Amino acid sequence: xxxxxxxxxxxxxxxxxxxxxxxxxxxxxxxxxxxxxxxxxxxxxxxxxxxxxxxxxxxxxxxxxxxxxxxxxxxxxxxxxxxxxxxxxxxxxxxxxxxxxxxxxxxxxxxxxxxxxxxxx
Length: 121
Fold this sequence. Notes:
By secondary structure, the protein is mostly helical. The protein has a single domain, classed as Orthogonal Bundle (Arc Repressor Mutant, subunit A). The chain has helices at about 15-25, 25-35, 40-45, 55-65, 85-120, and strands at about 40, 70-75, 80-85. The protein has a three-stranded antiparallel sheet.
C-alpha cells in the first residue's frame, strides 16, 4: 500500500483530519484533563466545565478511534468505565498543555486587542 504524501497544507493530506480533531476546543481540554491520569467519565466531566455528556462521549470515542485515549470497562454493578491517555495521547498532552498555558498567560492582551478592534468596527 502506497503511503499518501504528508503535507498539512495540501488538500488531500490525511493529517488534516488529525489536526482538525486536535484543534477542537473540547479535544484539547479533555487531553489536558487526562494528563492527570486515568479517570472516570463523571470526574472528567466535572473537570472540563461546560461540556455536555453527549459531547464528552463523542469526544472520547473520537480520541479512542485515533489511538489517543484508552477506554477501560469493568464488569461491575454499577458498571465502571475509565479513560486514560495512551502513549500516543501523552505525546499530544505536552503541546496542548503549552497552548493552554499560552492562552492563560496572554488572555489580558487578547481581551485588550479585542476591545480595541471592536471599538473601531
